[in-house]
Amino acid sequence: MPAEFYYGVEVFLNGLMAGVMYSLVALGFVLIFKASGIFNYAQGIMALFAAMTLVGFQEGQIPFAHLINAVFGTEVHHFGWTMPAFFAILFALGVMLLFAFLVEKLILKHLVNQEPIILFMATIGLAYFMEGFGDLMWGSNVKKLDIGIPQGGNFWIEENTAFLGGADFYGFYLDTLDIYATVIAAVLVTSLVLFSQYTKTGRALRAVADDHQAALSVGISLRSIWVIVWGIAGFVALVAGIMWGSKSGVQFSLSLIALKALPVLMLGGFTSIPGAIIGGLIIGVGEKMFEFLIGAPLLGGATENWFAYMLALVFLVFRPQGLFGEKIIERV
Amino acid sequence: MLYREVGEFKTSYAADQQTFPIRFDKLAYFIILAFAFLVVPFLINDYWANAVLLPFLIFGIAAIGLNILTGYCGQVSLGSGGFMAVGAYACYKLMTGFPDMNLIICIILSGGVTALVGILFGLPSLRIKGFYLAVATLAAQFFLVWLFNKVGWFYNYSASGQINAPEREMLGIVISGPNSSPQAVYLVCLSFLTVLALIARNLTRGAFGRKWMAIRDMDIAAEIIGVNPLMAKLTAFGVSSFYVGIAGALLFSVYLGAVEVGEVFGIQKSFLVLFMIIIGGLGSIFGSLAGAAFLVLMPVVLKNVMVGSLGWPVDIAAHFEFLIVGSLIVFFLIVEPHGFAMLWRIIKEKLRLWPFPH
User: Fold this and answer.
1) Residue B50: what are its φ and ψ, rounded to 5°?
2) pLDDT for A171 beyond 70
3) How many Å apart are CA B80 and CA A38, to the nearest integer?
């Protein structure tokens, strides 16, 4: 076997890992879309905000320190203590739940029965608000997130696959962090599926997703369901934020993965949790392989920026509802 | 004199479709126009022109363009930044390829090129709708920016990857390049905006506009009553991209002079234009301009207040800007989904009945 082939396999595996990361973000979108028909553009910013909050708690930053310093002329930055990762995660989760509650209270409640596109734009506004708010609260510098997940190449896999190739092949390079992400994503998806299938709240969630009015008429409170769903989406955002933040630092570009999650959703269908996972894997592998086989040698590289969107665009022309979406039926 | 018409007196369709049914409005319109053309050029300096007036005029054109597509035809587009880039690069290629051609013709032609690209990316709109289409236009945004970054032909293989506007004259006055005067540039942009706004107003109240609105309100029903969705959607994409392309060409050639595609025409610009029409009012020419004015002025005002008066650092002012823009959008969507234009309409309704409201 030539070394290029093994290199191709490595690219494929890394694409799968990247796809898992996309799926993590896409999952949050699907949850909210299913339960409220809202396409939540702010999901990426929620991940960024969650990661920022986590770092802020861990390092004992004073919220709004920059603003306080600017207004009162003081020089405060940190409380002077650090918090263990576990408690910081709990606190960050608390903040995300509070956020979910406030979003329902201040925004969604007032926009019931508006057209989907209005709701979508409202979430874009929300995304801008959170971006400014997050930066104001914790500062806009690039932060390092470390909650103890090991990083770097996995030597065990590298050593044990080296025998496959010739003398110039040193085994597959896989980031340990990505492997952790894969495991965590699998656990997350399994628990979400179990939650929605076997608990009372989960059943209520599915009922709301199916038909708002019917759910209301059997006594399910739409508003509390929305709080729960946004809370869960906040939790998923926190997980995604931790994973992406540990991988590439907590910074603004984190929120752009939200845009990458869009083609994932279009491929998988907006309403399907397995669709989000499989769509993510297809996009991850597709863009890495395209860059490896066609983009880098023939087109000058950096095709990862647009490949996912183009793939989704071409795909949609043939199957508008995505791979696993429900068939769209329109009536006048 | 301040306001007239206390009731419905219209007897013909033409009277009903008038742009300014009230004489006072018409008068005000011409006074504002005369003021903008004859008085403002003598008042402005470099700062006012570059920080407020030129961005307002140019983004006003882009906002009208996007409003035709999103507000009138109901097709959400997140690709305005990419289409502006097409206009800018087309203008650059035309300016450098045909040095003797008048800049105005270059700009109009680059609008035409953008229209063709827009129609191309509008083709999927026949199959996909709503969010799906919005995401598909993202493909245009990212692909176009990548294309202009990677393919050397577009920027004439310059070492920096930037494009620079060469100096061009019209009637003996320099209107592009580093030596142009703010007055000349202002008048060029203002003329474009005036003419294009007039055309847009007449297009949208004519047969085209009615077809677009029928598609927006319900495409299947529109198809049944005889509107050809292919033609309606593609013309909307074409006309809209023409406007956006002209805005991009103006932004590059007369306003900025030098452009780096990822920075100037990134996804942020697409959102900026989208916000202009949301805040201003979907489906309204006046609204597009009001939204553009608001979103151009607000950062300037905020910056002057927070950095200039309060002495805060620039980055905090920038964060506040995001925060305020975001909350305003949410606020407007909750209180008045139709934006400034609707508020204006409500005020006018009140004025029309004044002083006998019952």
Assistant:
1) -80, -35
2) no
3) 23
CB B115, CB B122: distance < 8 Å: no
Distance CA B219, CA B212 (A): 9
- Chain B residue with the nearest C-alpha to that of A309: B139
The pair of three-digit structure tokens given for residue A296, joined into one six-digit string: 């880098």
Per-residue pLDDT of B290-308, as tens digits, reads: 888 888 888 888 778 877 7
Contact, B50 vs B182, CB < 8 A? yes
Distance CA A313, CA B135 (A): 8
* Average pLDDT over all residues of chain A: 77
* Cα of B62 to nearest chain A Cα, Å: 19
- Structure tokens that stand for A308 in this block: 């996912």
User: Which tokens in the block code for residue B100?
Assistant: 């003797």
Judge contact between A127 and A262, C-beta under 8 A: no
The shortest C-alpha distance from A14 to chain B (Å) reads 23
CA distance A19 to B239: 38
CA B310, B313, B317, B323: dihedral to nearest 10 degrees?
A: -120
Residues A296-309: pLDDT tens digits?
666 666 677 777 78
Element of type H or E holding B173: strand B173-174
Domains along the sequence of chain B with CATH: 46-353 (1.10.3470)
User: A11-30, pLDDT tens digit by residue?
Assistant: 787 778 778 878 878 888 88
Residues 46-85 of chain B whose Cβ lies under 8 A from any Cβ of chain A: 76
State the pLDDT at residue B321.
80
Per the CB < 8 A criterion, the answer to whether B54 and B185 are in contact is yes
